[in-house]
Write a structure and sequence with these properties.
Domain Ketoreductase: 3-190
Pfam families: adh_short_C2
Protein name: NAD(P)-dependent dehydrogenase (Short-subunit alcohol dehydrogenase family)
Number of domains: 1
GO molecular function, one term: oxidoreductase activity
Number of helices: 9
CATH topology: Rossmann fold
Oligomer: single chain
Shape: globular
Order of helices and strands: EHEHEHEHEHHEHHHE
CATH superfamily: NAD(P)-binding Rossmann-like Domain
Keywords: Oxidoreductase
C-alpha cells in the first residue's frame, strides 16, 4: 500500500521539490498552499504527468481550523499520513529588531512556529501507535539562521526557526516509543523565492562568498535530505537536526 505524505508549503521552492521527489519515491502526496493556487496546481499536474498522485489543499497553517481541515481532507481523499514535512514558512522584509512591531512578530511566529506545532499535533494523533496508528516520520524544515541569528535582517525569522529546532528535539523524545521519528533539516542559503519576500531577490549572490562552498544551494538538494530522513534508511535517527548549508 502506498505511503501518504503531507508537504506543507508545497507550491514552490523546497516544498515543491520535496513534493515531486516524494511522489517519485512512491508517496501519495498532499501539498498545501496559502495563496499560490496556480503554482500548487502546477506541481500537482507535474506529479501526475510523471505517473504519481498528488492533491493540493489551501490552508493558512497559523489558523487551527485550517489545519484541522487540511488533515481531514487528507484522511478522506488519500488516507492517514505516514509522513509530514513541516516546510511552510515565511519571512518579512529585512530590518533591525528595533524596527519590528508586534504584528510582524505574530505573523512570523504564527506561520513558522504555531503552524508547525499544529501540523505535528495532528500528525501524531494519526501516526502514533498510542492512538492506534502505524507509526511514521516527521521532518521539520528549520534554517541555519537558527544558529546564526540573521542580525540586521531577520532576527525574528531566526528565532522562529530556533523554536522549530527545540520542538524537533522535544517531540522526538516524546514519541520515540510510539513509532514516530522526528528530525529536522536546516537549509542554508537556497535559491528560492523567499528572498524576494524579504526585499532582496538576489540575496544569494550577495552572501555566497561567506559560504565555504561559495554557492547557494538548490531546493532539490534540501529535498533529497528530507526524503532520506523520511526513509527507512534513517530508521535509527530521531531528534537530529541536519545542516544542509554548504559548510555554514
Amino acid at each position: 500500500m502506498a505511503r501518504i505524505a503531507i508537504v506543507t508549503g508545497g507550491s514552490r521552492g523546497i516544498g515543491a521539490a520535496t513534493a515531486r521527489l516524494a511522489a517519485g519515491a512512491g508517496y501519495r502526496v498532499c501539498l498545501t498552499y496559502r495563496n499560490r493556487r496556480e503554482d500548487a496546481e502546477a506541481v500537482v499536474a507535474a506529479i501526475a504527468r510523471a505517473g504519481g498522485e498528488a492533491i493540493a489543499v489551501q490552508a493558512d497553517l497559523g489558523i487551527e481550523a485550517d489545519v484541522l481541515r487540511l488533515f481531514e481532507d487528507t484522511d478522506r481523499r488519500l488516507g492517514r499520513p505516514d509522513a509530514l514535512v513541516n516546510n511552510a514558512g515565511m519571512l518579512e522584509r529585512q530590518m533591525r529588531l528595533e524596527q519590528m512591531d508586534a504584528a510582524r512578530l505574530r505573523r512570523v511566529f504564527d506561520a513558522n512556529v504555531v503552524g508547525s506545532f499544529l501540523c505535528a499535533r495532528e500528525a501524531v494523533r494519526r501516526m502514533s501507535t498510542r492512538h492506534g496508528g502505524r507509526g511514521g516520520a516527521i521532518v521539520n524544515v528549520s534554517s541555519v539562521a537558527a544558529r546564526l541569528g540573521s542580525p540586521g535582517e531577520y532576527v525574528d525569522y531566526a528565532a522562529s526557526k530556533a523554536a522549530v529546532d527545540t520542538m524537533t528535539v522535544g517531540l522526538a523524545r516524546e514519541v520515540a516509543t510510539e513509532g514516530i521519528r522526528v528530525n529536522a533539516v536546516r537549509p542554508g542559503t537556497i535559491h528560492t523565492g523567499i528572498h524576494a519576500s524579504g526585499g532582496e531577490p538576489d540575496r544569494v549572490e550577495r552572501v555566497k562568498a561567506r559560504i565555504p562552498m561559495q554557492r547557494g544551494g538548490q531546493p532539490e538538494e534540501i529535498a533529497r535530505a528530507i526524503l532520506w530522513l523520511l526513509s527507512d534508511e534513517a530508521s535509527y535517527l530521531t531528534g537530529s537536526i541536519v545542516d544542509v548549508a554548504g559548510g555554514l
